[in-house]
Design a protein that fits this description.
Strand content: 15-25%
Number of helices: 5
CATH class: Alpha Beta
Radius of gyration: 18 Å
CATH architecture: 3-Layer(aba) Sandwich
Oligomer: single chain
CATH topology: Aminopeptidase
Order of helices and strands: EEHEEEHEEEEHEHEH
Strand order of the largest sheet: 1-3-2-6-11-9-10
Protein name: N-formylglutamate amidohydrolase
Organism: Ferirhizobium litorale
Helix content: 25-40%
Largest sheet: 7 strands, mixed
Length: 270
């Protein structure tokens, strides 16, 4: 079947940098054949459809650092690339109070079609990019995944400007938190507003199972909701990411036990 667009975009970069950027929820696009999943067009301007500001931030950081990046090109309302294939929330029936008619009911054939057509190709692109950088340098790359979150949840304001999510590998996460806090004007969350230990998610699949140093950075959406905010945060983050990339100890393969439980070594990586 001819797709309307690729489920992922890979931005080329210097593989010698040893850094890979990921954006699981970069875009809010859907194939026209899904007719908006029965949702109003306004739903696709909300966080339920994508991570606001992250496409622009990822592109700008990739440009400034000269590093490769992989972005998903479909809305997480279609299927969530930051979930394992066996996660029951892979295709959401309700998201932040919005019922998704096109996802319920859903046949097993359609569920598998979305995995094979969108979810799996994205992860294959992530795997290829990480492996290409590792093959070029002969060392493990550092993987930095970019996300954004809403300023408030259920009426409660979120005080963090940004947050770092991680499971049990502290090598990139803790230095990243320290460097962000050293900026002096930021409130930084440590596994807030979400816990970074999620079995089967992108960081688990491509980094935890392979012993690759990594961190997931969340930036509050209102801070990167326009070009000015994106540029300001790229200016902040680019030198910090570059410093992480210069740490030799972060380019070693070292596998930590996950807080989610034992690994299934027959399913790791891809």
């Amino acid at each position: 079947m001819q797709l309307e667009y690729s489920p992922y975009e890979t931005i080329d970069g210097d593989h010698d940098s040893g850094i890979v950027l990921l954006a699981d929820h970069a875009m809010n696009r859907l194939p026209a054949s899904y007719d908006g999943l029965g949702l109003p067009e306004t739903a696709f301007a909300r966080h339920i459809a994508y991570d606001i500001g992250i496409e622009g931030l990822t592109r700008e950081l990739s440009r400034r650092l000269g590093v490769p990046a992989v972005l998903s090109c479909f809305s997480r309302l279609l299927i969530d690339p930051n979930r394992g294939e066996d996660d029951p929330t892979l295709i959401m029936k309700i998201s932040d109070g919005a019922i998704v008619p096109g996802n319920h009911p859903i046949s097993e054939a359609e569920w598998n079609h979305r995995i094979e057509t969108y979810h799996r190709p994205y992860h294959e692109a992530v795997h290829r990019t990480i492996s290409a950088v590792a093959g070029r340098t002969g060392r493990a790359p550092i993987v930095l995944s970019l996300h954004s979150y809403t300023p408030a949840w259920k009426g409660v304001a979120r005080p963090w400007h940004a947050a770092v999510l991680w499971d049990s590998d502290p090598r990139a996460a803790l230095p990243l938190i320290s460097m962000l806090e050293a900026e002096g004007d930021l409130v930084i969350g440590n596994n807030e507003p979400y816990d970074g230990a999620l079995k089967g998610d992108t960081m688990y699949r491509h980094c935890m199972t392979r012993g690759i140093a990594h961190a997931l950075l969340e930036v509050r959406q209102d801070l990167i909701g326009d070009e000015i905010g994106i540029r300001q945060w790229a200016e902040r983050l680019a030198p910090i990411f570059a410093k992480l990339g210069g740490r030799d100890e972060l380019h070693e393969y070292r596998r930590y036990p996950s807080r989610t439980g034992p690994y299934d070594d027959n399913r790791q990586g891809r």
